[in-house]
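Help!! Second protein's tokens look totally different from the first
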Amino acid sequence: MSIAVLKAGLQSTLQGAPFAGHRHLGLPAAGAADCLSLALANFLVGKSSSEIALEITLTDAIFEINAHCSIGVVGGAEYVRINDKDHPQHRTLRMDIGDKLHIGSSRPGCRTYLAISEEIGADCLLGGQSTYLAAGLGGFHGRALETGDVITFSHETQHIDLDRATPESLRPRYSNDHVLRITPGPEASGLHDGLLADLCLKPYTIGARANRMGIELEGEPLVGGESSNMPSAAVFPGTIQLPPSGHPYLLGPDAQTTGGYPRIAQVIRADRHLIGQLSSGSRIQLVRTTPERATEIYQEKLSLLSSWLGQIKLW
């Protein structure tokens, strides 16, 4: 009862819920970069929204499934093939022992999630199983998967015969153009009056410096970056910092717990899962909103999703 990795791809890891309650120890959140796609994939196989699945980044990956099980695939993958036959995303798919599963490259988008009905064996740390690559913790021995790896299942899972398809209205639309809503950060007003207006003025391009820790936004440098060092303060996924270069830096799920650059904005919680689909060359437009409206948007989104997924949180 296992999954053999025939082609690992650029960066495939085991990801689920973020680590919670350990930031005072310097442990970042980690977890799935796109928690909504993870939740949708897990629901197709009868799992809760934050259970461990495979997160496949950018390039294609191939697996051999050595179990009778169900899978769900959600994300930017160009195609899903079982034994060289195309199958749709957002559907419960049946797998037999020895079946070959080919997950295509993400075009557009950046990540695809493969959920499996069996319980995936993953290292447990501080109550979590997600992979934190920078410290080599959790997941599959704390690292990205490599060709030749074998992922075992914890125990034989009771089979649930499901046949689910995500409603069209709830299927994310992946694109090279994104809109992220933001609220002002703690230091936004301390640099210059028009800083947030400038931040939201024109689209930014995702640069080559883009990974799970953070993403550099390329565009017209913002005024104020040249004198922007400050004592370290708490940062979170979705925080936008302003380094001396003037190019904003958007923090991702593996971001550090503190930083010494001004926190000029914060991506709202309802939009934070979109960060996981940003890839080099894509564009984002930042749009300012208020903390009060951000809370309303989050509650509205949860209400919409709960009609299909049941109780869910986005991180």
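Here's the second one for comparison:
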Amino acid sequence: MNFISPDPCRISWREPRVWLVPLLAFAGMAVLIASDSNRSLFLYLNGLSALASDVLWQNLTVLGGTLAGLTLLAPLIGRRPDILWSLALAAIFATFWVHGLKGPIGMVRPPAVIPPELLHVIGPAHRYGSFPSGHSTTIFTVAGILSLYLRRGSLTWLLAAVALLIGISRIAVGVHWPLDVLGGAFGGWLSAVLGTLLAQRWRWGVSRSGKWIVGLALATGALALLISPDTSYPEAIMLQRGLALACLLPVFLLVFGRSRL
């Protein structure tokens, strides 16, 4: 069953799937700040993470990595260049959101201020560059792009829930506050909306040359993911390699003429 519309995406601001996720994320951030509950909620959620295996959290958290997150849409290479073009433009907005705020805000991460005996850390204990969460921004960008192209709007909330779970994994591994995750959800979803709006007006990415360049750029990222020496989450290496291969396979088929852009 094909849930993704074959027609060009048209955004209407009246649709809840466009504005509800960033609105809820913004409201959540406001509540955390007003109630000064960011730390206490982190400790609660980080403590609950021990109820599940570290392997689960490692595999969930790598899905929010920049390269891994973007390769989730790899099967669309050669089939839906409009979606990949929206993703490429959205990634630019998301990058500015993350790296434009981390330095100026300068929020420290939980390992920098919480005693080790109160903290459950999986993988490297990063200490700086907390807000917003880059992993959360990435996965909410991907989820937002998909939600804008889905035939069934109800699946938007499933996508948002999965993205939130991956965002929560950053709390589970002990390196981000709830505020960071909500910040990533806010910026990621809006990046998806802005990227799609821009893609509707600037159609270069669906031209023949644009399709090849976007596809090859995605394949280059997948190749980097495949050969990356990063072992921050060793139990998730197989998942990373599998995502990379899933991206490279359609590119291989395109190059050898079994499909065409």
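Reply: Different proteins will give different token patterns, so don't panic. The chain has a mean pLDDT of 89.
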